[in-house]
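Example record for the data management plan.
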Amino acid sequence: MSLVATVAGTPLEVSDVDAREVALRAAPQVAALPRPGTSEGRQLRRWLTQLLVTERVVAREAAALGVTVTAATPAEDELLPDLTARLEIGSVAASALADPLARALFAYVTDAVDVDEVAVADYHDRNPRRFAQFGHARGWLVPGGTPTLDEARPQIAAHLRGAARRRAFRLWLDQRRAALVWLAPGYEHPGDPRQPDNTHKH
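Corresponding structural encoding:
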């Protein structure tokens, strides 16, 4: 058995990463993937390892907390409505949230996260036209008037609440991975500056 990681002592093997890479390379977008054996190819395998351990952490924590998928489980686009949301939460967590169980866990972990009226009003002061309605004039899309705080409040609150919940889930998930996951040498996080294939330098 060749280990790449353990999650709460349960092994993740090289064959698990191999199988996920084979499945990924069978997808239509294979041309966008790095060639195996290259520095970028090794980084892809590190990323896949991060995804696999995250999926196992999610499954373990959901079981421990009694979280299951229900009709109330949010859809993926509710939690990750755009590219900015995916960047906020990180590529591994965003990919893990394709799984309904991960989304149910997200909802459970972040249920109490909310934003207060001061934050909503402050956001409106700094971004008064952020949620302005648009209309058409002479073939152009043009903004309407600046919405009042009362008019924009529901959209601002939803926007800020979504960002706060993504931040809370990301921090919670990072803590659970730190507590439960051991990574073998060569399978460190792709961004770990100690591994030789990390090209992000300062």
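Summary line stored alongside the record: The helical segments are 14-25, 39-65, 76-79, 83-89, 91-96, 100-109, 117-126, 149-180.
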